[in-house]
């Protein structure tokens, strides 16, 4: 399967295993529907919803992180044993925490969700344990590219569930506990044959695996046996938070109706069966998961923003089309299929299935957009998007109408809210003028950096900054770090730009501006004191303090005595947006460096928004206006590539 030019390795194998696993899940529900009464089936439905909401929300992010970080170590030829141990420890810690919470809340959970059947708490705990084990195992398998073993685990899980449920039905077992225990026994037994493939040569270095495209940064030898920064760290908090919220939304219809109509077991069962049917496209997503995130991450690290955008756009668009295609037959035949094959109570109609299909399509589109968000380093933004979706879901439950219609509307509104926010974030992140987070950024002298500057000049957001520059009335300006001339073109006639990037200087000249490299400027007849002002905008943050001081010492003597010097640097959000920034330069640093250079500070202010906006709005700037010394010093040796 081709997704926007990204062909995840192992998709075919994992897809086949996912199909068998799906058949096992459908068969498990269908056979349980025939062996259990309505109350028993409602209990199974709640355990199913809680286990997969909490379990997948906690442990699927761990699978994603293990896949990503193990693959990176394998590619770098370093041992993966430390990651396996850390991943296992994190899984055990998360499992212990959720089991303790389950034990503490067992009384209200039994009373409110399980209709007093406390025996179902044990299968619930077992299902959570199984999910912890299987997702940890799958992360290691995918990271080592052991997709045959990955597919084997899925296949065995599905077959064991189907055969075990068949055996329970043939032996006339009518215990909801027995049918629910299959969520524990089947996945755990399916893990056993694949353990050797998940833990191969964990303590030996792997031979480096060549990959097409630019070389990626590799683990340093001192990090080979321990943890590399960024491996299963605090980013997991955002991943887990987002996944828990996403799973809560996915199961909102079942869990929501338990709160709105706690005694309606038939509606709970019917909703679970309907969701099982309309989520057929989910298995296509599952088949892609083992490889898609890895491939998008590699493209992101190489700086292939177009490839990431194309892959996300086509995968999400394809899922939207597939969801719509599946929603139509589900709406037409859903009531008949679930009643005949899954023994669902006849309480839902065609419009109910259409609404659930719409919500599922939005959820799966958001899920794939989330892969792109993670690949571009948006762990926190993904969690915020799912949080907003969950908030909309919760608010929509208060809408007027029957419990079924309320949970269906809440599911659809919440899912599409999350999808819209994730799409908006990706559109902004993958714009050509946005730096690639996590990618090896070429330095500010590269052609790529010039291309980014040229793209930025097309944005209408530059208007306020042009106005700010003009109102300062700087006269003839020496623009140090002029780039492609974004500011220089709005300075007075006779202004001159200097930049160490020869490509940017050429671009500025092509626009009719006077610009030089530092070496070229030093060879001109520009005399000390020949400029009215010096402008140094978005330069100092690229330099350490010593180089910044040398830069100012080189060019300030060209400003007439008493002339102005304007220093501009980005605030927090802007600083974090560019991988070439090396030092945060705020008001305090600007004033210190200005005074050290002999400038008299006249004023310092935040532009265009108040200072507080700088943590969120990346175009907010620190602006310092100073006066040059009244005596002209001889220019220092040219700062070379610092300008």
From TrEMBL:
Pro residues bias (residue ranges): 205-215
One Pfam family from the record: Methyltransf_23
Transmembrane segments: 12-29, 41-62, 83-105, 120-141, 314-333, 353-371, 383-403
Coiled-coil region(s): none
Single Gene Ontology MF annotation: methyltransferase activity
PANTHER family linked to this entry: METHYLTRANSFERASE, UBIQUINONE BIOSYNTHESIS O-METHYLTRANSFERASE, MITOCHONDRIAL
UniProt protein name: Methyltransferase domain protein
Source organism of the structure: Actinacidiphila bryophytorum
